[in-house]
Design goal:
Length: 108
């Protein structure tokens, strides 16, 4: 019998909680079946996605979500990519240091 486990959490980058990383993983027997890792920033009272790595559409890829809502899809081997680039970009936009981690919240 296969046991499927879903893991979800939000990782915040600042004490103000204006940048976060939303993660969702579905796995079975140590193998990742699906994942979503999305970098978001808070604008006013709303969370806006900036970049998303996921396995939607049957393959792993990166989506860059622009301010106008358009999405640039980048295919390729995600094992060679880094979320640090996206986090650094948001930190530069906000004028904050991405190393100032404030904590992780587990979503059940």
């Amino acid at each position: 019998m296969s046991t499927i486990k879903e893991i979800k959490f939000v990782y915040t980058f600042t004490e103000e909680e204006t940048e976060r990383l939303r993660v969702s993983v579905l796995k079975s027997k140590g193998q990742i079946l699906k994942f979503v890792v999305q970098l978001e920033i808070k604008i006013g009272n709303f969370w806006k996605p900036i970049v998303r790595y996921d396995t939607a559409h049957g393959y792993s890829h990166k989506d860059i979500i622009r301010a106008d809502g358009s999405i640039e899809k980048q295919q390729g081997d995600l094992r060679t990519r880094s979320l640090k680039v996206g986090a650094t970009t948001v930190a530069q936009l906000r004028g904050k240091n991405p190393a100032g981690i404030s904590g992780t919240t587990l979503i059940t």
